[in-house]
């Protein structure tokens, strides 16, 4: 039963990598676990009772890889992409609300593929083109994936397979056909980029105006949602850097840490040495409850933007447009 134990160990490691979002390494470990499990079933387990016991142990491990959580993302949180949203509503929400509409020849979509620039995920790591170099477990996984998506001999009614990739051209042709709807997720337009900057800032204190948001939205053509997220994250760190490098602080009025509805006049915020009331000190001399961190300003946002570059090049976009012409729909 050595192979079975190795299978369980590999599956345990795979789950850990999955949780840590190291998906490529997790996939390798899952494949290794399947290989060891198949070896155990073929050569080390002789009777049906032992096989059932081994299967239950392996199933328990594999079930831990299933994510069951309710997301708190609303349709309004997604900027643009009306085509993609319509397809998902058609495939998921309408069949649940009006099941009588989807009977007989009118069936729901079984598979939807979202593809676009980097940041659109990596189903290709599981569903790439088959080759002689891939392992036996990878071939078995791919074959089973095809069977399950096709629904042969399975009760898969109401199951939607939603995949996403930024390199759709490497998908296995048979798997690509199983994704009946293939929707291109383009780079966000100016209005969507403006919305994304607001969304990523969230409720963090800032001094940006509507005109500021529109300006940075207009200056970020070619940026993906992931690129914008990185710009905002860096801008959010600018006040932290200001606190860390400050040589002078002054008293300022701001909300209390204990109760934001109560304002205090004895909070300390970083300032220039020439400011009225400036005191020479460093952040190490400021107590946690006394610090009033600077708000994110347009200056910080532009500094972060100046240090960033879009991650998507024209060559990748051309390949995505070509794939859309051949196989997809506009999102």
What does this protein look like?
The protein is an alpha/beta fold and 331 residues long. The protein folds into three domains: 62 residues; 125 residues, P-loop containing nucleotide triphosphate hydrolases (Rossmann fold), CATH 3.40.50.300; 121 residues, Helicase, Ruva Protein, domain 3. Helices cover 49% and strands 10% of the residues. The protein has twelve helices and seven strands. It has a four-stranded parallel sheet, with helices on both faces. Helix 1 runs parallel beside helix 3 and helix 2 crosses helix 6. The radius of gyration is 26 Å and the shape is extended. The mean pLDDT is 81.
List the helices and strands and how they pair.
Layout (H helix, E strand, L loop, with lengths): L1 H18 L3 H22 L3 H16 L18 H16 L13 E5 L8 H4 L8 H15 L10 E5 L7 H6 L2 E4 L5 H12 L8 H9 L6 H21 L2 E8 L7 E8 L8 E2 L17 H9 L7 H14 L1 E2 L1
Parallel strand pairs: 1-2, 1-3, 3-7
Antiparallel strand pairs: 4-5, 4-6
Helix pairs in contact: 1-2, 1-3, 2-6, 8-9, 8-10, 10-11
The count of DSSP E runs of length 2 or more, i.e. the number of strands, is 7
CATH architecture of the largest domain: 3-Layer(aba) Sandwich
**Fraction of helical residues:** 40-55%
Structural class: alpha/beta
Strand order of the largest sheet: 2-1-3-7
Element string (H = helix, E = strand): HHHHEHHEHEHHHEEEHHE
CATH topology of the largest domain: Rossmann fold
CATH superfamily of the largest domain: P-loop containing nucleotide triphosphate hydrolases
Organism: Petrolisthes manimaculis
Protein name: MIT domain-containing protein
Subcellular location: Membrane
Keywords: ATP-binding, Membrane, Nucleotide-binding
